[in-house]
Amino acid sequence: MSVDTGKCVHCGRCAAGCLFLARYGLDLAGLAERPELAYSCFLCERCAAVCPMGIDGAALALQLRRRQAGDGKALRRDPAYRLLLWEKAPYKFSNYRGGKGRSVLFPGCNFPSFYPKTTAKLVSVMEKYGVGVVYDCCEKPVSELGLEAEAQEHVRRMEARLRDRGVEELVMVCPNCYRFLADKLTIPMVTVYEKLRQLGEGAPVRRDAFPLYFPCPDRAEKRFFRDILPFLEGEVLDAFADVQCCGLGGCAAAREPETARAMAETAVERGGELYTYCASCVGSFRRRGMEGAHHLLPLILGVDEAVPLGMGSLLNRARRAL
Fold first, then answer.
1. Is residue 188 included in any domain, yes or no?
2. Has residue 103 been placed in a domain?
3. 1: pLDDT confidence band, cut at 50, 70 and 90?
4. Looking at the predicted structure, is the pLDDT value of residue 144 above 80?
5. Is the pLDDT of residue 237 over 70?
6. Hey, which residues does 75 pair with through a beta bridge?
7. pLDDT (tens digit, 9 = 90+) per residue, 81-125?
8. Which has fewest Cβ within 10 Å: 43, 110, 147, 164?
9. Residues 316, 310: Cα–Cα separation, whole Å
10. What angle do CA 204, 208, 213 make, to 5 degrees?
11. Which parts of the chain fold into alpha helices (H)?
């Protein structure tokens, strides 16, 4: 369905909450007339949350990207996306050897990259209950570059491989994977936090307060957050509500590095602690020097782990394919 920007009333609310739109002096109707900026949108959906006419800027940007993407050959030559598409279209580090049992863990790409020790601990815990593990990319980044048909074909192959192994439940670690695959897979999904509770695993995390950053894919429905909440003993604070995005949304940082930096630094400049449940967000904030950015899953599993910020994260991903 085409996004209708003709109903825009030019109230400016979208630009007031979006560093990207503000930088170019645009509202959503203006973005529709600037297709060359489609890849500069972070797809964070902040605009849709405030638009009185219900216009979804992320859907608009995706619509513009799909028109430009074509067969993907130009994107594969683009230095900004060449490595990403080499790795993920199709995913080079796919590994289904451990995909045995009715229930299977799906860690995604970035959590094993940044938290290999926690991933190993989680796999070990799940194995006690006959829960297997598969390593694959949900294809969200490929879809977000406008290669929707290519991403959908990968998801169809993913479902076929899982069905062939008798998988009836996916245990999701990443909120991005969960949100993207929710309406694309017929296999039921649960969050890793819900599964840990069902199994009686994981320990409460105790703090006086949890200054929480809600990642973009869970900001509206808070599906993951509801399952995490029973593990948190302390006051939960929505302390970063004005932080638009960690800076990694929509593959836009390649086009808008200054805007991406400004988004992350909105949180970093505040100092102190930040708790979230997206590995990509933690990586982004830590790259900007925010040592107090923490992922909640390692804390729940009792794993103390440094976060690699260079090529180590890519190597950790690659090791899962061995």
1. no
2. no
3. low
4. yes
5. yes
6. none
7. 999 999 999 999 999 999 999 999 999 999 999 999 999 999 999
8. 164
9. 11
10. 80
11. 13-16, 19-24, 28-32, 46-50, 57-69, 73-77, 82-88, 110-114, 116-127, 140-144, 148-164, 175-181, 192-199, 223-228, 257-268, 279-287, 296-301, 312-319
Alpha-carbon distance of 244 to 55, in angstroms, equals 17
> How far is Cα 150 from Cα 71, in angstroms, rounded to an integer?
9
The model carries a pTM of: 0.96
Q: How many CB atoms lie within 10 A of CB 79?
A: 7
161 domain residue, yes or no: no
Which strand (E) or helix (H) includes residue 27? none
Instruction: Count structural domains, the chain.
Output: 2
Amino acid code (one letter) for 313:
S
**Structural domain includes residue 61:** yes
Can you tell me which residue has the tokens 């973005």?
Answer: 31
Cα separations in angstroms, 269 against 203, 240, 280, 282, 288: 31, 11, 19, 15, 10
Cα 270 to Cα 46: distance, rounded to the nearest angstrom: 21
By residue range, what is the domain housing residue 61? 13-69
Cα–Cα distance between 175 and 218 in angstroms, integer? 6
Percent of the chain with pLDDT over 70: 100
Domain boundary residue, one of 53, 69, 85: 69
Q: Tell me what the mean pLDDT of segment 18-44 comes to.
A: 98
3-state DSSP assignment of residue 300: helix
Looking at residue 140, its amino acid is: K
